[in-house]
Amino acid sequence: MDSIVNRVYDDLRRRILQNEFGPNGVLVEQDIAEEYKVSRGSAREAMQKLCEAKFLIKRPRKGYFIYNFSTREMQEIIHTRYFLEVGVVKHIIAHCTDEQIRDLYNCIDGEEYPTLPEKVVNRQFHLQMAELTGNKFLVELLESLLAFTVRKAIHLSTSSTKSKHEALIEALLARDEELICQRLREDLDVEPLLPQSDLAFR
């Protein structure tokens, strides 16, 4: 993508993640081109990229709609996150010191913590855990999965999120793999996958 398309793409992606357009928002090429003062071609290219990334879905002669994941799709994304993060926590208990694990408390004990939205708090904590692996590709993959799940995040209080994160840190310090996986499932709200027939075709 050229710099103009990239700028439009990045800003629209940010606005979608912040739920600025709502779950039923509709974006029109001409309106986006005028708002960002770019050509319709650049607006179209940015929006097509957002379709490829499953942030938008194009409906001919109607515009671009916010992509809403089906229940099955969201479950698959959460399961993918769980499988990925199991690898993260296994690395942590095998290779990280207690001091490194305790540093995770800094993510949930900061002065700004109570004022942050739950989805921001959750994102920061899980990315900080992933960064302990030293694997930048894993961190980028988790960040992309978080971008999907944050759009469907249940609006929990930060106190509820904090207690789950504290329980996970305690399990990491105990280096109890079974308990860690249990705490991770509770934090991610992992549920059994629904039958494939539940998947909404688009």
Structural account:
By secondary structure, the chain is mostly helical. The protein is built from 10 helices and 3 strands. A 3-stranded antiparallel sheet has the order 1-3-2. Strand 2 (56-59) and strand 3 form a beta hairpin. The chain is elongated. The two termini are 27 Å apart. Keywords: DNA-binding, Transcription, Transcription regulation. Residues 2-69 form the HTH gntR-type domain. This is GntR family transcriptional regulator. It comes from Anaerotruncus colihominis.
- The tally of helices reads 10
Assigned CATH superfamily of the largest domain? GntR ligand-binding domain-like
Strand order of the largest sheet: 1-3-2
Second rung of CATH, namely the architecture of the largest domain: Up-down Bundle
Judged by helices, strands and strand pairing, the structural class is mainly alpha
Q: What's the rounded overall pLDDT mean?
A: 86
Q: What's the order of the H and E elements?
A: HEHHEEHHHHHHH
Highest-level CATH class of the largest domain: Mainly Alpha
Poorly predicted ranges: 197-202
Oligomerization state of this entry?
Answer: single chain
CATH-assigned fold name of the largest domain: Four Helix Bundle (Hemerythrin (Met), subunit A)
The count of strands amounts to 3
* Backbone CA Rg: 19 Å
Terminal residue distance: 27 Å
Number of domains: 2
Fraction of residues in helix: 55-70%
How much of the polypeptide forms β-strand, as a percent range? under 5%
- Describe the main β-sheet briefly: 3 strands, antiparallel
Question: What would you call the shape?
Answer: elongated
